[in-house]
Task: structure prediction
Amino acid sequence: MNKRDKVLHLLEDDIEQDYVPAGFFIHFDKTCHHGQAAIDKHLEFYQHTGMDFVKIQYETPFPPRLEIKSPDDWGKMPLYGKDFYEDQLYIVEGLVKKAKKDALVIMTTYSPFMCAGQTTRHTPDMGQTLITEHIKENPEKVKQGMEVITESLMLFVKACIELGVDGFYASTQGGESHRFEDIELFNACVKPYDLALMEEMNRCCQFNILHVCDFHDGYDSLAPFVDYPGDVVNCSLTLGDQEISAKEVSRMFGRLYMGGLDRKGVIATGTEGEIDAAVAEVLQEAPDRFILGADCTLPADIDWDNIRTAISAAHNPL
Result:
């Protein structure tokens, strides 16, 4: 079996896993965010590291809208059409053509809530704070903008599906411990828009990864996300002040778990021997079906050889 077959084999019921796939991701230099340079860099990374699928980085953020300063302003949210994603779709098309015969091609997406945070990013640290405050102040007004953002992202999702992606790495936020004291705000202004996109992904694609992103803060509970679609879940193993196991997350979500390594830990800073030992420890405690990865995107300046070492350790356990 090629890498594509080996990863899909994990979705079959009642199999004994005899091969541990692995996938790690970084944001490439800005010179490789667009066009053929992005296609080439993704392929170089995939080939150098030996990872088991091609995960396409999304580098087309929603631009800040200075006119959106209060909840009432979300009615001004523009609809970005398919042309807005033209460069990103060019990258998708190129990587599907180059890699799909041997490996799954997975497209990264950011949730409507995350794109709303980009929209209110008038200063680098303001976006996530402002969208959160707007939802608390007047959720019904914010939902007008969320609907437009979701409509736009749906155009992108459907275009990626038409181009032949095998699935999506669907990144979401909104349930962090600092965010909403009232879970109903999450249920009203975040979750329905996540589900609209993820259900379309799940309906049309054979391999989707749910990523619960802790870039801005951690989580006290993953319960708001357990009924999200997806074949694989990827998230941090830290909940509040406790560490949970990959087996616990896999049981909680009822699906494959991808992860095990801290993105800023030994894979980023360790020696080859230390990385080998860390991967061996992760595999010893892993669920019956498992993909080695990190809890989120690795540091951009990481040595690619470190990633290759971790992936080789997964493929050839001690």
User: Anything to note?
Assistant: The mean pLDDT is 96.
